[in-house]
Write a structure and sequence with these properties.
Blueprint lengths: L10 H9 L6 H14 L2 H8 L9 H17 L5 H8 L6 H10 L2 H14 L9 H12 L5 H8 L8 H12 L4 H12 L6 H13 L8 H5 L9 E4 L2 E4 L2
Antiparallel strand pairs: 1-2
Helix pairs in contact: 1-2, 2-3, 2-4, 3-5, 4-6, 5-6, 8-10, 10-12, 11-12
Length: 243
């Protein structure tokens, strides 16, 4: 005899179904989410992450539920890192999970997850750049982490296929204006095939405002003073705004 052939699922299965059902009542979803956190298994916490994958009909309830998911996952500490990592490997949006990650992981544990996500979103053509942009913006704003390490990871996206990704990378480097950011920004400013004038102008602003090196290419930069960089000058071999 095959036992459980007509079973409707385990209690955990039922809880997962309730927590991830868009048609359930908000209060019922929250209760189910709390049960998943109490269970604490990899399967339960992975399911809890899935609450980030859809939006409830009522915006306020949706925001409250997602914040509840953030708090519940954060309360599990290191136990939630692996389920969170697994979820983000294929999720269409990772903005909310990243907010959890910065709470529960640091040092090598943090970069282990970050570097895997970056490897899955390498610079180049992507049909949907949402994940790239979310990841870059999050890296730029991440607190209590070495700025040089973050700049090194953001800089390659200045050469992405998508102009919005490239601009997001420039904005990320504006928040991490270390010397690791200088050469990539100079390259973006001088790249002949770069068609985005707003990106070139932003690169110039970041270089000038942070007194970053022109990496031995001051003559090439000076050649742009009569056009793109009409509001700039050289000062001690670095780019500066004209007063």
């Amino acid at each position: 005899m095959v036992f459980g052939l007509f079973s409707k699922g385990t209690p955990l299965d039922k809880t997962i179904k309730k927590a991830t059902s868009e048609n359930a009542q908000s209060a019922d979803r929250v209760i189910a989410m709390e049960k998943l956190a109490e269970d604490g298994s990899h399967e339960a916490l992975l399911a809890l992450c899935r609450r980030f994958s859809f939006s409830a009909t009522k915006m306020i309830e949706d925001e409250q539920e997602k914040q509840t998911a953030i708090e519940l996952l954060s309360s599990k500490g290191d136990d939630a890192v692996d389920p969170l990592h697994e979820y983000m490997q294929s999720a269409l949006s990772i903005a909310f999970p990243l907010r959890v990650l910065e709470r529960i992981a640091e040092g090598e544990r943090l970069f282990e997850v970050v570097d895997d996500l970056l490897a899955r979103e390498e610079p180049g053509y992507t049909k949907d750049s949402t994940r790239k942009i979310q990841l870059i913006e999050w890296l730029g704003e991440l607190e209590n982490v070495n700025s040089r390490e973050l700049a090194r990871r953001i800089a390659p996206y200045l050469q992405d296929f998508d102009e919005n990704v490239r601009f997001a990378a420039a904005e990320g480097l504006a928040l991490r204006p270390t010397e690791e950011a200088a050469e990539p920004l100079v390259n973006a400013l001088l790249r002949e095939e770069e068609e985005s004038m707003r990106l070139k102008r932003r690169a110039a602003e970041i270089l000038a405002d942070n007194n970053l090196s022109l990496c031995g290419r001051k003559d090439e930069v000076a050649a742009l003073f009569d056009d793109l960089l009409s509001g700039y000058k050289l000062h001690r071999d670095k780019l500066a705004r004209k007063k």
